[in-house]
Amino acid sequence: MSNINIKKLAQELNLSTATVSRALTDNYQISSETKRRVLELAKSLNYEPNPFASNLRNQKSKTIAVIVPEVANHFFSLAINGIEEIARKRDYHVLIYQTHENSETEIAFTLKLLSGRVDGILISTSGETNNKQHLIEASQSIPVVFFDRVYEDIEGVKIITDDYESSYQAVQHLIEAGCKKIAYLLALHNLSTGEKRLNGYLTALKDNGIPFNKNLLVTSTVDSNQNYALIKNLLANNKPDGILSSIEELAFPCYYACRELNLNIPRDIKIISFSNLDCAPLLNPSLTTITQPAFEIGSEAAGILFKIFDKKCFEPNETRVLKSVLIKRESTAV
Amino acid sequence: MSNINIKKLAQELNLSTATVSRALTDNYQISSETKRRVLELAKSLNYEPNPFASNLRNQKSKTIAVIVPEVANHFFSLAINGIEEIARKRDYHVLIYQTHENSETEIAFTLKLLSGRVDGILISTSGETNNKQHLIEASQSIPVVFFDRVYEDIEGVKIITDDYESSYQAVQHLIEAGCKKIAYLLALHNLSTGEKRLNGYLTALKDNGIPFNKNLLVTSTVDSNQNYALIKNLLANNKPDGILSSIEELAFPCYYACRELNLNIPRDIKIISFSNLDCAPLLNPSLTTITQPAFEIGSEAAGILFKIFDKKCFEPNETRVLKSVLIKRESTAV
DNA sequence: GTGAAAGCGCTAACAC
DNA sequence: GTGTTAGCGCTTTCAC
């Protein structure tokens, strides 16, 4: 830690600390000669202002927090990438918190952050439980932007994608490719994100005159081994000819299960997954995906947070919807 | 921000701020009755201590910084995952900075962090240039742990993998699979990480009596389009029968280039890449990888940083080497 | 066992 | 154009 502070600069230059402070912030009152001297000395001594002192004094931290389920998930790491880029442009610092889909952890993080440590929060909630009091408290206390994984019934600014439409379109694509028994791998069902994806599936079935079969609906868990078992079970017992996976994490287990059961994709079964995997085109077979604009979601979310800081042009309950894109590949080929 | 502070608690309870502060930190001098009253009120008012005030007073931040080239890279996001888990156990906060392989950015971040904002830094350096003065300055000023991408000639604690051995073993594997013209995709060449990987390649060739052919050595750039062109060029003009890619980012371009040139992997050419891609087993064909223990690198690095904070059992210039594992798959099948 | 008071480093009102 | 001073919220020495 550089232990050189304003006081020392002031002594050295025979100025008051106030003048030095003003010179450093380029205050108009200070003569350019004084500014020059101060800046020169500061530079030569590698002076860096103590952030905690100014944070304390200014009641702002120039820091934002990002709360996500997992950083080691391509969607979230891309979103963080987008967030970080915007933050850097504004000279803001980015704190990262992982909930590992655990509601308790999310609650603890969120409430701890209301101590002034950050000026705002970007959160993609775990949705593991329906407990959302902490989110309400948080957004009443500091600016919060929700992204991707949101609760519709919580007031606040939200950046989401067109989950319903994407899901609907995916099912439509499967049907057009000849699928008659389309399974759905359900996740995020406590969140409106998950709800909309499910509704897209259900409505598309209905619109095509296909009755809903509850045996084709598999609810995923937080345990990846169990998910694999559930999927294998689905394939073995219910023999769907199409699968729509509502989250990326379930795509690989589908592939592995098909291999294990000697099912050929796409001949025996066609697969689509919500996914940001950049290896989708290189898989065997290449995977048809609904790809969310993850980076843009992050940068949009961060951008709007800064707008809130600047108190300009945003609706207090604005929801911004970005479009995902359905990329058709071999896994749904006819 | 919760605007309830020690002063208000003190007023409410007819105590001094000093007593309240001591009660909150469970100081032995305070009667248990007083502690009970303080804790109760604090709890009921959702009191959270202002971190900047205590940071300023205590001259510590309970925060660490992680500087990486990219968060949206599976190796780094896994490492961050490991770091975050350890940090959380110690109730530390984690700041994330991305350099995008840009040396200027790395320098700016590093030097800014020496203002007391963080108690320590974990860094995987970009190595884009040979400029490393900032790293020396940083580690002289606060605890720094280098991980994966390191300079051997900078003093400090380092967590790395067995780069030389991994590379050597990979080439050996290619040779045993029948390769005679093995290309090497060079990256990180300013870093000892990159140097060791290259040396493993060179030595393995030599030990097998294969002369080094400089046309088979391709130096990657920061521009992915250019890298793709370089690889395609290599394949078209020099017709290697094996490739060792020293970074994950070049594996996909190899696959695409082979497709473009109608080269069959592994019949015409065999491929190994340093990689943490979890889709490696599902690629077409599945990819033989040297997989680094990314999560463990992160958690080890964070663990040793906390040991430094605790001033116990570490060597000031300790280098800890974790083992990568060569996972043989179809891309190098005979 | 508790309180008074100083001070961490910075900024901003209020002087002049 | 510059200086004096108070205070952000917390911790800790010193006093009693």
Shape of chain A: elongated
Number of strands of chain A: 12
Could you say how many structural domains of chain A there are in total?
3
| Alpha carbon gap, first and last residue of chain A | 63 Å
The top-level CATH class of the largest domain in chain A is: Alpha Beta
Written as H for each helix and E for each strand, in order along the chain, the element string of chain A is HHHHEHEHEHEEHEHEHEHEEHEE
Architecture (CATH level 2) name of the largest domain in chain A = 3-Layer(aba) Sandwich
CATH level-four homologous superfamily name of the largest domain in chain A: Response regulator
How is the main sheet of chain A built? 6 strands, parallel
| Alpha-carbon Rg of chain A, integer | 25 Å
Pair with the biggest interface: A-B, 52 and 52 residues
CATH fold-level topology of the largest domain in chain A: Rossmann fold
Helical amount among residues of chain A, as a percent range? 40-55%
Q: What multimeric state do the chains show?
A: homodimer
What's the mean pLDDT score of chain A? 94
Low-confidence stretches of chain A: none
- Neighbour order of strands in the largest sheet of chain A: 2-1-3-4-5-11
In short:
Chain A is 43% helix and 16% strand. The first copy, chain A, has 334 residues and is an alpha/beta fold.
How would you describe this protein?
- Two copies of one chain form a homodimer.
- Chain A is α/β, with parallel strands linked by helices.
- Chain A folds into three domains: 6-57, 434 Repressor (Amino-terminal Domain) (Orthogonal Bundle); 63-161 and 294-322, Rossmann fold (3-Layer(aba) Sandwich), CATH 3.40.50; 163-292 and 326-332, Response regulator (Rossmann fold).
- Helices cover 43% and strands 16% of the residues of chain A.
- The first copy, chain A, is built from twelve helices and twelve strands.
- Chain A has helices at residues 6-13, 17-24, 32-44, 51-58, 74-89, 103-112, 133-141, 163-176, 192-207, 224-238, 251-260, 294-309, and strands at residues 63-68, 93-98, 120-123, 144-147, 157-161, 182-186, 217-219, 242-245, 270-274, 288-291, 319-322, 325-327.
- Chain A has a six-stranded parallel beta sheet with strand order 2-1-3-4-5-11, with helices on both faces.
- In chain A, helix 11 links the parallel strand 8 and strand 9.
- In chain A, helix 1 (6-13) packs across helix 2, helix 5 (74-89) runs parallel beside helix 12 (294-309) and helix 8 packs parallel to helix 9 (192-207).
- The longest helix of chain A is centred in the N-terminal third of the chain and has 16 residues, at 74-89.
- The first copy, chain A, is elongated, with a radius of gyration of 25 Å.
- The mean pLDDT of chain A is 94.
- At the A-B interface, helix 4, helix 5, strand 2 and helix 11 of A face helix 4, helix 5, strand 2 and helix 11 of B.
- Chain A binds a DNA duplex (16 and 16 nucleotides) through residues 5-7, 15-19, 21-22, 25, 29-31, 34, 49-50, 52-59, 116.
